[in-house]
Amino acid sequence: MSKQKQPVGKYMEVWGDTVVPKELAASAVICIISSMAFFLAGRAFFTGLGTLDAELAKGYALLVGIAGTFVGAFISGKRFKPKRRILEDASGEDIEEILRSAGMTLEEEIDALRTVSPDVIREMESFELYSLLALIPEDSPNYKPEYRLKAKEKAAANQAKTEGT
Amino acid sequence: MLTTILLAIVAAVAGGFLYTIVGIIPGTDETATMVPTTIILVLAGAPAGVLFAWEVGIIVAMQCSHTIPTAMTGLPGSTMAVPLVQSCTIAKRLGVPHMAMRKMAAGSVVGTIFVLPIGIIVALLLSPLGDVISSYSGVIFTVCAVLVAYISPARWGAIAAIIPFAIFIQALQRIAIEGHGSTVFTSIFMGITIGPMIYELFGTLIPSRRRQFAKDEPNESWLAPDTKQKLPFFPNPFKQLTRQQVAQCGLWSAISSVGFTMSPVGMTVLAGEASGGRKKELYDRISTCLGVQNATCNATYMAGLIIPLLGLGGVAIGGVAAGPAAPLFACAPRFEIGNNLSNLLTIPDYILFGIIGVVGGALCAYPIGMHKARSWTELMLRAVSQEALIGAFCGLVVMLSFYEAGILGVFLALTIGLVGGFLHTVFGVHTGIQFMTYYASAWIVTNLLSIASVLN
Q1: Choosing among B386, B407, B414, which should be mutated to test the A contact, i.e. which has the most A CBs within 10 A?
Q2: Boundary-marking domain end, from A79, A111, A134
Q3: Which of A92, A101, A120 lies closest to B284 in CB terms?
Q4: For the whole model, what pTM was predicted?
């Protein structure tokens, strides 16, 4: 081998998630072999019985085959671990930032909160969405002073949590 | 009859459980996951009622549980969950992913409850047309293929691709007749279904492509924190939505019954824009949008299953009948257009087995969505590797094509998968257009041949 191999990243993205190509190939081979082995064994067994209609016997063999697929997937799953990094999302994000990503401004949201139906407000209370509720202006029938207090408490609690970690 | 009912209950509950899990695994495609198992049940000779309950059950379960990873990580749980991602991400950033979860799960159950009667009524209104439609199915499939192509992102390119793709399919059918003695269905259908994946797998074999698409780091997923709120085991879905949201769900269930031939994803996007888009307040907007969108998701699927079966004489028109539910319409040697589930079920059957399916499907998915969304998402992300998942698909595809036409079937599936996957991924001639073209291909090629002989 005279040619130096270029360094290639370890992972590939297939069907929306990262895989290691070698492991993917191995997993495909394992599953194909186990499915086919179960299917062929099932077919031999059910046609060997001689009491079943030929088409039906093959159909039952497929059910055995799908069991084989599960066995194969189980073996591959044991051998090859997922390549995902899972991170905990406990962000106390800035409300303006979120509104902007939704294509809205803070003023628009405040205006909308002024007139939104009490049904919606009640739901927001039950989900403790104080960061939005605190924006309700004082001249609105939806306004309650406790929202701003609770929003502050929540923000402080979040702050403490982030500092703690 | 009693055995059929018992079997239907077992099928709906088992299918419901299985597809709850499939839905929680991010990115799994409905057609690709539902078709293989349904083919197996059809070929194993399951009674018609059992098949209908199974299909309804797995649709309800998956449409409910695909919301779980979408809400918790922002990764779509299935293809149909893609339109939900944006509002879910906002909900997650606001710190209320469980709100998104509940709205969507409740929406899906409410949508199904609405669409079952509405779908049956629309089907009965259309049913006088059923015989006419089945005798002109070739032309109708061709027209549908052109329409689906026109509204696709590839537009004129997709329309231009219809004739070559039809010729390609019929050429493969000739090879199948040569080698196997008859035309094939499963191999071609499975080939189209897994085409996009075959194309990507093929890409991993090409050194230059590998260098281009290789990554040094695995994907990162952000998981939302849990909630402490307590709920009953099976919370009333109507109480999870405001009255206005329930009304919107009902309205959109009716609209999707009428527009069952439209793309389900397109319909869902439309429902979201029309119901939530006009709301000015952010929370109101995303909660309405999510509830109504997932109700529409479910409704288009159920309508797309019931109306072609009951109303159109079993001609597989629309994205569901030509997609996830296709084996109930055509699945050689048991079913073909003109002799399929629609000839085996009566109206009371649709109601009875439909209800069994809805209950069986929701039994597992709905409570998990309401209570265990976070822990199950984490479990799936940590326990199920993408390698094992794709491997399992490869196993299923190879087995099913081998079942139909031996090794030849496997090669046919790979061939059509590579070509179809290329058209899908590179040009946006998506698999929906390819399915419709498959149904239209015999008519197109027969007429091409007669035109050619006249002009000679």
Answers
A1: B386
A2: A79
A3: A120
A4: 0.84
Query: A127 at the B interface (CB within 8 A)?
Result: yes
Q: What is the pLDDT of residues A84-138, one digit of tens each?
A: 888 776 555 678 888 888 888 888 888 888 888 888 888 888 888 888 888 888 8
Identify the domain containing residue A46 by its residue range. 12-79
- The CA distance from B2 to A77, in Å, is 39
Model confidence pLDDT, tens digit, residues B3-42: 999 999 999 999 999 999 888 887 778 888 898 899 999 9
Q: Is residue B354 domain-resident?
A: yes
Residue A148 in any domain: the answer is: yes
Q: What is the pLDDT of residue B31?
A: 86
User: Is A52 at the interface with chain B, CB within 8 A?
Assistant: no
Question: Angle A150-B226-A105 (CA atoms, 0-180°, nearest 5)?
Answer: 50
A13–B213 C-beta distance less than 8 A:
yes
Does A74 map to a domain? yes
Would you say residue A1 lies in a domain? no
H runs (alpha helix) in B74-155: 85-93, 97-126, 130-135, 137-150
Q: Assess contact for B366 and B238: CB atoms under 8 A.
A: no
- ipTM value: 0.80
Provide the Cα torsion B331, B424, B212, B29; round to 10°: -50
**Tally of domains within chain B:** 1
Can you tell me which residue has the tokens 């004129």?
B156
Facing B218 at nearest CB: one of A32, A62, A85 = A85
Same domain, A66 and A101: no
Cis peptide before B333 (omega within 30 of 0): yes
